[in-house]
Amino acid sequence: MKRRWLPEWVSEYRDRHGKPRYRFRRKGFVTYAFKAAPGTEAFRQEYAACLEGIAAPAVDPGADRAMPGTFDDLIARYYRSPDFLDPGERTRTVYRGVLERWRQQKPSSGRRYGEALVRDLQARHVEKMMADMLPHRTSANMLRKRLKALMQFAIRQGLAKTNPVDATRPFKVEGGGFHTWSEAEIAAYEATHQIGTMARLAFDLLLFTGQRGGDVRLLGPGHVRDKRITLTQEKTGVTVSLPILPPLAASILATPSRAMVFIVNGFGRPFTRKGFGNKIREWCDDAGLTECSAHGLRKAAARRFAEAGCSNQQIKSWTGHTTDSEVARYTAAADQKSLSDEAGAMLMANLRKRLANQSGKPLKKEA
Fold first, then answer.
1. Are residues 33 and 147 in the same domain?
2. Which domain holds residue 243?
3. Does residue 159 surpass a pLDDT of 80?
4. Cα–Cα distance between 59 and 96 in angstroms, integer?
5. Where are the alpha helices (DSSP H) in 52-113?
6. pTM of the shown model
7. Deepest of 51, 147, 223, 333, by most Cβ within 10 A of its Cβ?
């Protein structure tokens, strides 16, 4: 029988029912069992996640020999719990990065945080760790958030009775996160990168789907059916089905590609997550847009929906957000000038109506 070709580090085995299964086995990395069959788009995405160290992260030497009751012990348990495994792969990568950097640090005592006993952690310790990270307030707040979740898990594991992080406060962070593209900036990019270029197609996919860059870089013909794009968001697991708007359809048709994805690098291959972000940065710089980013286009898409009068439910159906508060952060940059004009006009109309009722005279229209 002809042996099936498999990518590097992928091997086939039979489960207890005799059914063929596939796994990623690479020295120094965690073994990963594939959910999809080779040759499918889902398998390609899983394999890419293994190569990037997301689905198959590097093995932490000595993790199985952690001293009971230490943070090394707690974190090893946490990585095997639903608290850590339920979020998407990208989210897990971020969480793991924060915790791994923290537990390898050595304070003045010379002992790694990972070697410290969980029961000894106090609020003043957390505040000191956060203060040591200044002026990076966002990073300090992220550490606090992850330690809080970790200590909640420790309580359930019987390694702590209370959560000392609850007694601390996050730093106030100025600014609204990623810059939201203005209409002038959108026009500047479009003028620099014409339809038919990879730079323009990436831009149009981001703007006219409103999805995250990590999802957009993997979009391809396999996601298109009945003039719609259907995808499951990597970060949240939410599935969205979006109509392909005319500007995006024109951009896709003008940029022919034989690849399984729409956006490819100079070698005809999909971008890595980091590579895609760097390339968008380069294309923005070419247009003189130093403050703009891929995620800013997602916010611009939400802003446009808000300015068009769409409800929060309608916007959420497009962006995949699950709460109104999340949408509010993205639509805060809605055109304040036009909205204030509308509010002013409504106010004056109400005042004229009130005056007319008081005087008994018919309401006059403004010239």
1. no
2. 183-334
3. yes
4. 12
5. 71-78, 82-85, 89-103
6. 0.63
7. 147
Q: Tally the domains of the chain.
A: 4
* Backbone region of residue 365 per phi and psi (left: phi > 0; alpha: psi in -120 to 50; beta: other values): beta
Cα angle value 30/32/37 (rounded, 5°): 160
In eight-state DSSP terms, residue 365 is P
Between 97 and 328, where is the model more confident? 97
Check: CB of residue 182 under 8 Å from CB of residue 203: no
Is residue 213 within 8 Å of 229, Cβ to Cβ? no
Domain boundary among 174, 206, 237: 174
Query: Distances from the Cα of 53 to the Cαs of 24, 121, 139, 199, in angstroms?
Result: 11, 31, 22, 27
For helices 273-286 and 294-307, give the axis angle rounded to 10 degrees. 70
Task: Report the distance separating Cα 199 and Cα 280, nearest Å.
Answer: 8
What is the crossing angle of helices 123-132 and 137-157, to 10°? 150
Distance CA 213, CA 275 (A): 11
Q: Which residue has the tokens 């997301």?
A: 54
Domain boundary pick from 119, 148, 174: 174
Position 219 scores a pLDDT of 94
Evaluate if residue 53 carries a pLDDT over 70: yes
User: Going by C-beta distance under 8 Å and a sequence separation of 6 or more, which residues neighbour residue 117?
Assistant: 69, 70, 71
* Residue closest to 301 by CA, chosen among 280, 330, 270, 258: 330
d(CA 112, CA 202): 43
How far apart CA 129 and CA 138 sit, in angstroms, is 13
Beta bridge partners of 264: 270
